[in-house]
Amino acid sequence: MSRIFSFFVLIAVSISAYSQEMEYDLLISQGDSLMINYNLPEALQKYEQAARISHTYELRKRIGNCHYRRGAYRQCIAELEQLPDSSLDHAAMRNLYFCYQNIGDRKKMYYMGELIRVVYPYDGELIANLAKNYNADEKPELAAAALIPYLERDSTSLNVLRQYAEAKFFMLEFDVARETYKRIIELGDSTSYNVNYSLGICYLHYEDFEKAYSCLRKAVDISERKKMGSLYRLGMACVKTGRAAEGVECLTRSLELSKTPSSLLFNLNELLADGYEQLGDYRNEQYALKDCLLLEGSHNRILYKLALAYRNGKDYHNAAVTYRQFLNSAGMVPENKRADELKQMMSLAEADLKNVEKLNK
Questions:
Q1: Distances in Å between the alpha carbon of 23 and those of 18, 29, 47, 66?
Q2: pLDDT digit string (tens) for 289-299?
């Protein structure tokens, strides 16, 4: 009797397991179909339902990929970091790399990028991106080291060549950079601002001013005359090649682009003064406030702050002088147009001026 009972229990368990396996396979199939159709929210629901049955490595990759494509980078990382490196396929490794990049985890990004470079040496797109990050982080030697093995296999990838040229440019190896930029143009990328600009600088370095002029002229045209650096260097090439009128025009335009709006400089200096005031550095606070006045003349709020800075710095003579300047300037504002802030500053200044005059005796 007990054997018969055990037999039926075994059959029931087998049926249940088979039923769960069928349900699991169905949910995975449905999730995959939804992913193909870019229905990511519902695909994720199907995968998560399947995970309640069995959270396998392959399912973690699917869930991680779904999170990645939805921009949920930390959730993607949480799934894929559960897997040992040996079980990560190419797609999962790439997802981790770009997730680390997007959340700013440079250490893990570089680790995963180097791992992909070794395991999948023909992934030129990712290797170029890895090198781009090295160049951005001022590590051109590492960028070049990452790119050279790929270039030995394929010397025609524009993505890889661009980063190799940049690395050599940053390493001041202008001869290699120049030849690489020329190769990029030969392969069809003749309309890139960066390529023409950087190649022009290489020619300037070797005092080949005619070729520099040609490249920089293209860069300026591509940028629609909106980049200060290329205009400045084109102006230099123009002067060196006897194109004085064009050179003056380019250099003048470069100067116009280099000017920071006075309103921004005013705000920056006032904020800087506030910072120095909080630090108790009254001398530098005074310098910053004086720079504000150079930009906007007799500005009532700045004059009041400057008088306070002199007072806090125990320069009672200049504090008294500046308080009087402030009161004279503020007094020119009609009473019916004086803001509450100005009225309060005038009242405080009048009271403190008497104290300062006493301290100055």
A1: 9, 10, 12, 20
A2: 999 998 887 78
Residues contacting residue 216 through CB under 8 Å, at least 6 positions apart: 196, 197, 200, 230, 233, 234, 237
Tokens for 235, please give them.
């102006």
Which range (157-161, 219-223, 247-251) has the least confidence? 247-251
Structure tokens at 92: 């999962």
190/357 Cα distance (integer angstroms): 71
Burial of 183 from C-beta contacts in 10 A (0-12 / 13-18 / 19+): middle
Q: Mean pLDDT across the chain, nearest whole number?
A: 89
Residue 270: CB atoms within 10 Å: 20
Predicted pLDDT of residue 12: 46
What pLDDT, on the 0 to 100 scale, is given for residue 20?
67
Q: Return the ∠ at Cα 13 (arms to 11 and 16), rounded to 5°.
A: 110
What DSSP string describes 117-162?
Answer: HHH-TT-HHHHHHHHHHHHHTT-HHHHHHHHHHHHHH-S--HHHHH
Say whether pLDDT at 258 is over 60: yes
pLDDT tens digits, one per residue of 44-64? 898 888 888 888 888 899 999
Q: Determine whether 16 is exposed, middle or buried from the number of CB atoms within 10 Å of its CB (0-12, 13-18, 19+).
A: exposed
3-state SS, residue 356: helix
DSSP-derived 3-state class of residue 102: helix
Contacts by 20-28, CB closer than 8 A, 24 or more apart: 20/53, 20/54, 23/53, 24/50, 24/53, 24/54, 27/53, 28/59, 28/62
- For 113-141, what is each residue's pLDDT tens digit? 999 999 999 999 999 999 999 999 999 99
